[in-house]
Amino acid sequence: MELIVNLELLATGATATIFLTVFTIWFRERDKNRVNLGLSAIVFLSFLYHSQLEILALFDGPTENFSEPVSNTIAALWWLAMAFLINKSLNRFIWYGKLAWDGEPAVPRLLREIVMVVIYLTAGMIILRFVFNQPITAVAATSGVVALVMGYSAQSTLKEIFAGISLNLDDPFQKGDLIEFDGEWGYIKDMNWRSVTCQDMDQNIVVLPNSKVAEGKIRNLTRPTEVMRRTFSFHAEYNVPTSIVLEVAEQAIKECPKVTLHPGNFAAFIGFDEQGAIYKMHFHAKDFDDWFLAGDQVSNALWYGLNRRGIRFAFQRHLNFAFPEDDNRLLPDSLLDDSNWEDLVTLFGRVPVFEQMLEEDIEDLAKTANWRIFGPPERIVSVSETTTSMFIVASGRADVFEVIDDGSEIKMDELGPGQTAGIMAILTGASQQTTIRAAIETAAWEINSDALHAIFERRPIAMEHIAESVARWQAEEDQTLAARKLSRTQEAKIIDKRQTSLSKRISRFFVQSKTEETNVEFTDY
Which CATH class is domain 336-512? Predict the structure, then answer.
C-alpha cells in the first residue's frame, strides 16, 4: 500500500512539474494575462475534477484503479494553479501595482521571492495533508523554526520593509513632491524597501529610514496644489491708525508679481504688545521658488510703502532714523542746497517732453513736483490705470512690462534718469498701456496733472509745445517710420498731423475734463 502511495505521489509530482513547465513556457511573454490564465486553469481543473467519472467512463475497460490517482492529480494541480493565481495577482496588483514606485516595485526582489516560495510551499503542504492524507507536522515545525530564525536576524530590515509597505498603502507623497519632515524641506527622489531619498534645499541627498518617516509628521507641500501660503508679521507704532497700516500692507501684497492672486491674500491687525501694534500678512505663491521670492518682494514693498507714509516699524525703534539727517538720506543734494536749484530746473528742461517749454514754466513745474522713492518690485504706474501724475526718473532704474491676458508680465524696456513714465495718460486721460516697476531703488519726481493744467490755462501755447515734443518723440521711436523709409517731408507731415491731433486731445481733456477716442496711435510708457 505504501508503495502505491509513493508511486502516486511520484506520478502526481511529475505530472504537476510538466504541467507548470509547459504552462510557464507557453505564456512566458503574456505578463498581463497571467491572472486570467490562472483563473482559467482553476475553472478548467474544477470542471475536470467534478467530471472525472464521466470522462473515465468513456474509456473501455475497468477504471476503478485509475479513479483515485486521477482525482488526486487533478486536486494537486488545482492547488498549484491556485498558488500560481495568488502569486501572479500579487505581482500585478500589489508588487507592480499599489506598492510600485515609478513603475518599479518598492518591495525588494528577495522579499517577493520569499513570499512566492511561501505560497507554493503552503500549497505543497495542503496537497500533502488534504489530498494524499500525509502528515505535515515535521515540515511545518521545520518551516516555523526557519522563519523564526530569519525574522529575528532581520528584524530591523523587516521593520523598514513593513514601514515602506505602510507608506505605499497610505500614499502620503509621490516622487517629485515637496515635503517638510522634522522642519526640513526636500523633494522626494526615490523610495525603496528600506528608505526614502530626498534632495534638500541645499541640493544635498538625504536618506530617511522608512520607519522614521512612517512615525514622523509629514507635510506635503505639493498637495492638493503647489500653491503655498506664507505669513509675515511686523510691528508698527501705536500712534498710527490700524486702517492706514492695513491699507499699506495690502497694497504691498498687490505690488508683488511673485504673489499669486488668491482670495486668502490679506493683512490683519492682531493686537498690541510692549513693542507696538502687531500686524500679520497672508499671501500665496505658486510654488516653492516663488514662496521665497514673494516674501522678499512683500517685505521690500511694505518697507517703502510705510516709509512714504511716515510710518515706522516699532521693533527697536531707537535704531530707526536715529539721527535727523537720516530722514534726508534719499534726497538729492540739489534739494538740500538752495544754491543748486538751477540743477533741478536743468534736469526738468532736459526732459524731451518739456524741451520747448519756457524756463519759467519749467520752474513752476519743478516747484510743484513731489519727490518719490520706489523700491523693487513696487509699481510706479500700472497697466489700465487712469493716472493723474507723470514721473521723471531722477536716479535708479525701472523696468517696463507688457501685461498679457493671463496677468503675466513680459519685460519690454528699461527707464533710466531723465526718462518719463505716464506722460500720455495725464495729457490725454487715456489708460496706462504698460506697467512700470522699480528694478532697483528708484527716485522719481512726480508731476501732477493740476500743475500742467495751471500752465496750460495761463499759457495755451505751452500745450502746443508739449504736443509737438511728444509727437516728435513718438515719431523718433516709431519703428514703422524707419521700416517704410519715409522722406523728411513725409515724416514732417506725420509729425504735424500728430501734433494737431494731440493738441486737440490735450485740450479736450483739460478743458472739458473728458476723453474721446482718436485714430492716432502713440507709443507711451
Answer: mainly beta
User: Can you tell me whether residue 444 is helix, strand or coil?
Assistant: strand
CATH class of 172-220: mainly beta
Domain boundaries, the chain: 2-153, 172-220, 228-322, 336-512
- State the cell numbers at 292: 521665497
Nearest partner of 389 among 455, 456, 447, 308, judged by Cα: 447
How far, in Å, CA of 284 to CA of 229, rounded?
Answer: 4
Fold classification of 228-322 is: Alpha-Beta Plaits (3.30.70)
- Residues 114 and 150: their CA atoms lie apart, in Å, by 11
| Nearest residue to 396 (alpha-carbon basis) of 323, 306, 304, 295 | 304
Tell me the C-alpha distance between 416 and 438, whole Å.
10
Q: Which residue's C-alpha cell is 529610514? A: 209
| Residue 263, preceding peptide bond in cis (omega within 30° of 0) | no
Encode pLDDT of 47-56 as tens digits. Answer: 777 777 666 6
Q: Residues of the chain with pLDDT > 90: what percent?
A: 15
Which helix H or strand E contains 90, and what residues bound it? none
pTM above 0.70, yes or no: no
What the block records as the C-alpha cell of 378 is: 513696487
Digit-coded pLDDT (tens) for 140-178? 666 666 666 655 555 666 677 777 777 777 778 888 888
H/E stretch holding 107 reads none
Domains 228-322 and 336-512 share a fold: no
